[in-house]
């Protein structure tokens, strides 16, 4: 017990010899500068920039990740005023998606005829001849075991419309 008291006394004597006064001089200088500043000066708030809403208007245009189609103006087909999409009919669900997202994955056949299974737009969909597919008024014209033939009605750029055939082939082992 006496040894422990002796060690405490020696430690206190050793610590009392340390010079503590100059150790916090830089902190004291900073505090003096802060206290010397004039009271009541607050920096103004930064200017608030209101949010401007942006509406994306190029959703119906060609994807920038697909190569552009080169068209020779001399051989370009002219549209017809007789061909025109039926704007008054009720649009089907699969017309809200680009035709490029669909791929044929199979067929079904029953008494009503042949139907195709198309994968895209978040699932596998059953389509038949006469159904519409894609944003360009694409109507399914023919279904066989290996492909689905679609006829799209697209504008020709001069006020007329063109019928553009397209074939979606069966994708095997997907």
Automatic annotation (TrEMBL):
PROSITE patterns hit by this protein: PROKAR_LIPOPROTEIN
A Pfam family: PilP
Alphabetized InterPro entries for the sequence: PilP
Protein name: Type 4 fimbrial biogenesis protein PilP
Source species of the chain: Azotobacter chroococcum NCIMB 8003
